[in-house]
Write a structure and sequence with these properties.
The complex is a heterodimer of chains A (361) and B (100). By secondary structure, chain A is an all-alpha fold. Chain A has helices at residues 2-11, 14-27, 36-61, 67-91, 96-107, 111-124, 131-139, 142-166, 171-194, 196-217, 220-225, 227-244, 249-252, 254-277, 282-293, 299-307, 313-360. Chain B has two helices and four strands. Classes of the chains: A mainly alpha (361), B alpha+beta (100).
Amino acid sequence: MDILQLIQANLLTPIILFFLFGIIAAKIKSDLKIPESISEFLPIYLLAAIGLHGGIEMRNTGFENMLIPMLVAIGLSLLFTLNHYQILRRLGKFNLFDSYALASTYGAVGAVHFSVGLSFLKNQGVTSEGYIAAILAVLEPLAFILAIFMTNMAVSKQIKVKKQSFAGDNSVDVDVGLNQTKTNLSKVLRESITGKAIVILLGSIVIGYIIGEEGFESIKIVFDDMFTGAIVIFMIEMGIIAGQRLDDIKKVGVFLTGFAIIMPVFNGIIGVLVSTALGLSLGGAVMFGLLMASASFIAAPAVLRHAIPQAKPSLYITSALGITFPFNIIVTLPILFTISTLVHTGEGTIDLFHYITEGFL
Amino acid sequence: MKLYDVKLLTITCEILAQENIIEILKKNEITGYTTYEVDGNGARGIRGQGFKNEKNVKVEVIMHEEKLQDVVEEISRTLFANFAIVLYVGDIGVLRPEKF
């Protein structure tokens, strides 16, 4: 009941309404579109705001206790990616390349998800641990690196098997395959670490940490007060792009549609429970869960198109942007919030119960 | 005015293949090229809408015939299968053949 009410309330927030509006605008073939330079600027702005916010929070609360949540997040992200692969490959019968591309798209994190989550929490008057922004930065390239590594391993193994069936000495060719793997991986690693998303995010975290609350005061109007408004503008663009792809969703198929809805909720709930067990706050657990639930649709194509060019981008972009993203911000986010509230205040009920039983004794 | 015969290789492809093409050119010691963003329609549907990563580019390269074979072969072998790409070659005349 509570969840439904929250979903309903969430549905009527400007972020969601403008997203839906964007979809409609695309559907009626309006020529409405956000100017290109603005839609390129907004992700940078959002990441800068996330980073500053995270850096200031880290200064306030310290970051000694961020190591364990970060390691757990890394572990979960890798585990989820492998799990996705098994599900897609075995149950979904996707080919190797599509399976790994999709697995990493859903194992990776989305900065847009993160922005919407922060604004959602702000709306609910809940804060979250600042170091989650640092976790976002670390998780960003992780799932892709794993998927690319696994794909290359699988491909060179296939080549090896094929060559062996022809017999003859072939160690040279296999070595070439392995070298290819290494160059591919180091290239992806270097490109993601120096890529604009991570650079602006890490840079802003450091600057936020240095300037603290007082220094932030002078730029607060841009990076705090305007944050939700900027997301709203970005949501129009996201809605338009999602709307243009609406017809492609039919091509995605029933299995992937189900996967794109069930998997994020499952991952997100695990994220909330695990992070609560690690001692994260109510809001922190929601953000942690959202990181686990989110799918990447801005970074994914840029990385995967090069690293796994055989995979069909129409599958992973459409499912991540057209299905998972709207579902996550409309339904998953309130679910995660409700569960997090439940497990955080749940301790209170246990105490109460304990108190009552004590009273009886 | 004397014009010398060289080849113009034009490649229209998705923007994410641009890097691969320039790498191939570099491998064949071709450093000069021109690119511009374009949009259009083709086998993979209308391209150029949405994300920047989904735009198309046109790459124009002038080269001597000797290099053309290798470049075209490598592009078609490595990129045709997985990328939205169209490639064609034309005869053109230039004034200063030593530039290419």
